[in-house]
Amino acid sequence: MSFDISVVKRRGDVLVAGNVAGGEGVTVLFGPSGVGKSSVLDMVAGLLRPDTGHVRVGGETLYDDSARIDEPAHRRRAGYVFQDARLFPHLRVAANLRYGERLAAPADRWIDFDTVVAFLDIERLLRRWPATLSGGEARRVAIGRALLSAPRFLLLDEPLSFLDHARREEIARVIEDVRDRLKLPILLVTHDRTEAERLGTRIVTM
Ligand SMILES: Nc1ncnc2c1ncn2[C@@H]1O[C@H](COP(=O)(O)OP(=O)(O)OP(=O)(O)O)[C@@H](O)[C@H]1O
């Protein structure tokens, strides 16, 4: 499964240009704040329409302005983990996870609830409210919700930001596990070079 992305989008005064060619593992989009990394993830997810370009994942065209293809977000099968987790505050952890599961067509599901809970070691969090979670716990739950939506690939926006050293290490290991055990292709955004070098199978600089 590979990423073949070439998108251009004007955002205010900034011209965002993202070009990514990458296969298995973790493809890191690396660059300074404001260059447009999150905008590229949004364009891959189908949350932001490029001015021009194409987005192909695993040979499937999700967006191509010249061919007039623009798959809606819910059909792209991207598991998007936002920088701020964006858990639903009015749902307990278990219900947040079930929400992800309900997004997936039953035939597409490749991992079940109990496996995700064990994989991420979040059993003890299931009855908690999002507001009571630490940053690292919330990020685990957000990754779990994304995995349960039966994604073909993951989009991770600054997954280690705002965490202390020990929590960064834990989430880095979770990402390595998703890469190595679940073999899910990942497009990961970061402005941190150490993080890029640790997690990236390849690094694309913006
Ligand atoms: N709705 C908007 N209207 C105008 N400009 C915007 C809008 N959203 C983002 N921008 C601008 O587009 C540029 C790219 O933003 P984006 O968040 O994609 O960058 P980034 O590289 O992910 O930065 P960061 O690491 O700080 O999140 C920034 O200069 C930002 O100010």
From TrEMBL:
<feature type="domain" description="ABC transporter">
    <location>
        <begin position="2"/>
        <end position="206"/>
    </location>
</feature>
<protein>
    <submittedName>
        <fullName>ATP-binding cassette domain-containing protein</fullName>
    </submittedName>
</protein>
<dbReference type="InterPro" id="IPR027417">
    <property type="entry name" value="P-loop_NTPase"/>
</dbReference>
<dbReference type="InterPro" id="IPR003439">
    <property type="entry name" value="ABC_transporter-like_ATP-bd"/>
</dbReference>
<dbReference type="InterPro" id="IPR050334">
    <property type="entry name" value="Molybdenum_import_ModC"/>
</dbReference>
<dbReference type="InterPro" id="IPR003593">
    <property type="entry name" value="AAA+_ATPase"/>
</dbReference>
<keyword id="KW-0067">ATP-binding</keyword>
<dbReference type="Pfam" id="PF00005">
    <property type="entry name" value="ABC_tran"/>
</dbReference>
<dbReference type="InterPro" id="IPR017871">
    <property type="entry name" value="ABC_transporter-like_CS"/>
</dbReference>
<keyword id="KW-0547">Nucleotide-binding</keyword>
<dbReference type="GO" id="GO:0005524">
    <property type="term" value="F:ATP binding"/>
</dbReference>
